[in-house]
Design brief:
- By secondary structure, the protein is an alpha+beta fold.
- A hairpin with a 2-residue loop joins strand 9 and strand 10.
- Helix 4 crosses helix 7 and helix 5 packs across helix 7.
Amino acid sequence: MASTTPDASQNQESTKNSIIFRSVKTLAESPELTSVPSSYTFATNPDDELVTDPDDDDPIPVIDYSLLFTGTPDQRAKTIHDLGRACEEWGFFMVINHSVPKSLMEKMVDQVFAFFNLKEEDKQEYAGNKNVTDPIRYGTSFNASMDRVKFWRDFIKIIVHPEFHSPDKPPAFRDTCEEYCRKTRELGRELLKGISESLGLEADYIDRTMNLDHGLQIIAANLYSPCPQPDLAMGMPPHSDHGLLNLLIQNGVCGLQVLHNKKWINVSSAPNRFLVLVSDHLEILSNGKYKSVVHRAVVSNKATRISLATVIAPSLDTVVEPASELTDNQTNPAAYVGMKHKDYMELQRTNHLYGKSVLNQVKI
């Protein structure tokens, strides 16, 4: 991520003998660290700091996935309605009674921990990769070459569909990841069928028009190490994601906050639940009816947090634009410019990450 070497083959060779960047994990484990370095000091907006726990009168939506398949017709219809309401009013919901085994979710988090606990030289094999379509990217911050302030996180991003990739270490990572990705891809596509119906479209509309048979699926694992001054640093700034849905699990340590009705809501980590975030391309496809959620990651001075996101997205060459069935030139014209998914990802990579800065650029 932070390499300036232009030649990829030279870059890969150099990573065998040198460390390209200093990871936050390495920094956090340094016995000399007593305060946050100035390069990580994140200035917050006082008007943007109202944080609260979920309100009992306005709870985070919970979707019972099993009712899409085993419920009565009335239960299924209500679940589809609830999906639509969650996407429109929250841009975010929790999924229970899904099809991914709890043991597999826990094993995948364990393997992510094991990866980050590898020797630094083993991880650096993937550190020189900086293109958004590189199969495996290990790095820190968001875009270390552009970020004015570095973010208190290390990450690994792996493209797992349409072609599966995996690091070679730790030994059990590949098999666990392959099974986990297959299960989460099935979950994401089935949720999108329900969301498609909630928009008044055919169940397979999103799957078909976004070419999900060849859709991009990315595993993005984040490590948020303990921070000596958590109020001065940020794990990830407020942002929305590319893609259609982001299926998120955590290791039991809180740190995720979502923006809802101009307030930041703490989202607790719950076992055997997926936190599903609506992403930018679903907002575009729905012509703004469903909203991608702005979220951020705060850090702790006590615990290490792991988050594991599964991005379910259109194929790279798919032009994502508002569904023609949801627009008309008179009362509801298209509100976004169509753009290929890979071009949108590149636009995100070359922009400073904050709020909906990228999505706003394709608004008409």
